[in-house]
Specification:
The complex is a heterodimer of chains A (about 90) and B (about 500). Helix content of chain A is about 35%, strand content about 5%. Chain A is mainly alpha-helical and about 90 residues long. Classes of the chains: A mainly alpha (about 90), B alpha/beta (about 500).
């Protein structure tokens, strides 16, 4: 039988809180010791949540990452482009 | 392990259409927005809103044709929302891709500008699923009519005096699914109706492409050919290499040989699909006038961990490089029927050439294969004979080396090999039959020791093309030492 699935129906950019929590739990377990201290995580996340470039309450427009995940990673930086005053809003938390 | 490959330099098998090296850019994830379009006010250097770094990288690939705006998005796209002053353009919800807000800043004029900057031909996909005949007809008039008419006048008001040249036009997309969930009989009738009003204005002659089958839906091809062959120039086919199932596709960075083998096996399946669909097309079109247009192909993995699942962002490894090379070799083999192919997609989505993060950009292993293979564009394919020689895994076997060869208008011969065995090197005796001497041989290769080797923003050149010279020459034969998991191209003067 030919596969008659519509591929777009399998995807969504909007996540429920439950979906997000499940993803975070699973993926955070896989990250292991690459996490930042919890206070840095909270500061980063608060910055992202106020950012005008946050999409769908979860997603950074510059790299498509879920900020609830990205802000936990040691090796990540705020990906805002430019290098001007607006870029790397996490810098002061490092 | 050794294998003999004979290339018959005096046995021409027809031209390899350059359009096989086409691309696809959809309003999906960060392909158009952020990947290509950043807007004129962006801090990212741009020309007319299109980012310079991505443009320069893509220009190097000699992209012959670019499909837009979808994909599934095409059957929900209303082109009039995307013209005129940007600040007044309608904001809409792209429900096909999970509710994305679309501000329509990248529309017809911006796409045509992108094509102009890339020196590539536009391939527009029209809206059958939720659009009207009038809407489609007026879009073609808007783009291509040079005389006096409401659409032509509107285009001029919006800053484009002369009509654009537009050859390729798709009448709908995946109409068996997101493009309307139609039966082939119903779509065939709609195709006949809609294409009637896709007019040729002046000397602009449109190549009409009918929405084709999903993977192995051979009945779809049969019905479309039976009912509408005389009204089409091309018929599309979509097939993605998904190593697992749709619900669990597999990780792009899976380092295991099992995933590698399954991916290669599913890549070779493209050969079967083309052969079977072509057999049906031959029944109605023995002259092979109608092109098979494989306007969506490539790998489809689970999205990268931590990225929005609706953005379809995946990493790209040496495995993708092999997939790209194998597909090209298969497309070349069917150059009598396959007139165009468009990898999905150009930037940041699925098997992409380019990945971006803010103002950073990296080229993927797939990019490097496209760059390496561009020498075959519009070249004459040469006949090849090589014995079956297999790569085995868990009791299954696949051809170990896939080879293609062509001769360009300068007389240069280019031979490309994909070596899929990831464990052992292979010695290839490449015999160039019909030549009396080899003046100059150069080569390039892409390979990696890890099966999930890839480029990152921190290590952008981890996987890249390098010069290849690990061969010896004996008269008109070359003995090549080919490393595991590699794609290479030799140019012989």
């Amino acid at each position: 039988m030919p596969q008659q699935k519509c591929k777009s129906c399998l995807q969504s950019v909007k996540l429920t809180k439950v979906e997000l929590a499940q993803m975070m739990q699973k993926q955070t377990e896989e990250i292991g010791d690459l996490l930042v201290p919890i206070e840095v995580y909270f500061k980063r996340l608060a910055t992202c949540e106020l950012c005008e470039d946050l999409q769908y309450e979860t997603t950074c427009r510059y790299n498509g990452m879920l900020v609830q995940y990205m802000t936990r990673l040691k090796n990540k930086q705020c990906p805002r482009p430019g290098g001007g005053n607006g870029s790397n809003r996490w810098q002061s938390f490092l | 392990m050794s294998i003999n490959v004979n290339v018959y330099t005096d046995f021409n098998e027809g031209k390899i259409s350059k359009h096989i090296y086409g691309h696809f850019s959809e309003h999906l994830g960060r392909c158009i927005y952020e990947g290509i379009w950043v807007g004129e006010d962006s801090e990212i250097p741009n020309i007319d809103g299109i980012r310079n770094d991505v443009l320069a990288a893509l220009k190097e690939l000699n992209i012959p044709v670019l499909r837009w705006p979808g994909g599934c998005f095409a059957d929900e796209y209303h082109w009039k929302d995307g013209i005129g002053p940007r600040e007044k353009r309608k904001r809409m919800v792209n429900t096909h891709w999970g509710g994305v807000v679309e501000n329509n800043h990248f529309g017809t004029h911006e796409f045509m500008r992108l094509c102009e900057l890339l020196d590539t031909e536009p391939y527009i996909c029209g809206n059958v699923g939720s659009g009207t005949v009038q809407e489609m007809s007026e879009w073609v008039e808007y783009m291509t009519f040079g005389g006096e008419s409401p659409m032509s006048a509107w285009r001029q008001e919006n800053g484009q005096k002369d009509p654009w040249k537009l050859k390729y036009f798709g009448v709908g997309n995946e109409n068996w699914g997101c493009g309307g969930n139609m039966r082939p009989e119903y779509y065939a009738d709609l195709y006949r109706r809609y294409q009637t009003y896709v007019r040729n204005y002046g000397d602009n002659k449109i190549y009409r492409i009918a929405g084709g089958a999903n993977v192995d839906d051979f009945n779809w091809t049969d019905v479309l050919m039976r009912e509408a062959a005389h009204l089409m120039d091309g018929l599309s086919l979509h097939y993605y290499v998904v190593p697992g199932e749709w619900s669990n596709k597999g990780s792009a960075l899976d380092p295991k040989e099992e995933a590698w083998f399954r991916t290669m096996k599913k890549s070779f399946h493209m050969e079967t699909l083309i052969s079977k669909h072509a057999t049906i097309m031959n029944k109605y079109d023995p002259e092979k006038r109608i092109g098979m247009i494989i306007d969506e192909w490539g790998t489809w993995f689970d999205v990268e961990p931590g990225t929005n699942p609706g953005f379809l962002f995946q990493q790209n490894t040496i495995r993708d490089a092999l997939v790209a090379g194998l597909h090209f070799n298969i497309f070349h083999e069917h150059n009598d029927r396959v007139h165009m192919a468009n990898i999905a997609q150009m930037v940041n989505v699925l098997q992409a050439m380019i990945l971006t993060e803010g103002d950073k950009m990296i080229k993927t292993p797939t990019y490097h294969v496209f760059n390496m293979y561009k020498v075959h564009q519009d070249a004459e394919r040469l006949a090849i004979k090589q014995p079956e020689d297999t790569y085995e895994f868990n009791g299954e076997a696949l051809p170990r080396v896939s080879t293609t060869a062509s001769q360009n208008s300068n007389g240069e011969i280019n031979v490309s090999l994909c070596h899929i065995n990831p464990r052992e090197e292979t010695t290839v005796s490449l015999n160039l039959q019909g030549l009396t001497e080899l003046n100059h041989v150069t080569g390039s290769i892409i390979t990696a020791s890890e099966l999930n080797a890839h480029n990152t923003f921190e290590q952008p050149h981890n996987v890249r093309t390098e010069a290849y010279s690990n061969f010896t020459q004996h008269g008109t034969s070359l003995e090549l030492t080919v490393p595991p998991a590699s794609v290479l191209t030799l140019t012989i003067s």
